[in-house]
Amino acid sequence: MTTKLFTEIENFLEKEKCDELIKIFEKKNEKSLDNFSNQFRIRFIDIIIQEMIQKIYNEKIKLILNSDFYINDSFSYVRYNNDGLVENHYDKYLNNKARFSILIYLNDEYDDGETYIYDENETKKITIPKKTGKCIIFDGSKLLHGCNRVKGIKNILIGSLIKI
């Protein structure tokens, strides 16, 4: 679904690929850079994942957005533990050419914890239903957003799109 505020792409990643990515991140011995709001976050640069997501972007999203972007090679894997949440916020892109945030649900076997985005006036909160493999693209620097409290464990991959 594409709205004025965001684009949703169902089955952006297949469940098997999501499960594989979770296993890769769970094996990483890196220390979490952030350990707040009962979440675990690893920021990383991975050319293989970038190339994989770029290929899928070219196949599934390019026509929807009607524009050329490339996927930034810097990602964050975020695991929300039970009771994890993210308060309302705006994204700050490290690359000043970044234009959109990209969020990919790696699982949906948890309760609550939906990602939400407010409209431009910050008066209407739009909750985005979770589904393994779903991708959400939106301008995180301009749209207030967050994550409701999770009951269980939520895994997502987040990054940014940069306009060519």
Indicate how many domains the architecture comprises. 1
What's the overall average pLDDT, rounded? 83
Q: Which term fits the overall shape?
A: globular
Name the beta content range.
35-45%
Helix % is 10-25%
Count of beta strands: 13
Q: What's the CATH first level?
A: Mainly Beta
Termini separation: 24 Å
Kindly name the structural category.
Answer: alpha+beta
CATH superfamily: q2cbj1_9rhob like domain
CATH topology: Jelly Rolls
Q: Number of helix segments?
A: 3
Major sheet, described briefly?
7 strands, antiparallel
Radius of gyration: 15 Å
The SSE order reads EHEHHEEEEEEEEEEE
Q: Would you identify the regions where 5 or more consecutive residues have pLDDT less than 50? A: none
CATH architectural designation: Sandwich
Would you mind describing this structure in some detail?
- This protein has 164 residues and is α+β, with helices and mostly antiparallel strands.
- The chain has three helices and 13 strands; from the N terminus they run βαβααβββββββββββ.
- The strands form three sheets. Strands 1, 2, 3, 4, 6, 10 and 13 form a seven-stranded antiparallel beta sheet that branches. The protein has a four-stranded antiparallel beta sheet with strand order 5-11-8-9, with no helix packed on it. A two-stranded antiparallel ribbon has the order 7-12.
- The longest helix has 14 residues, at 47-60.
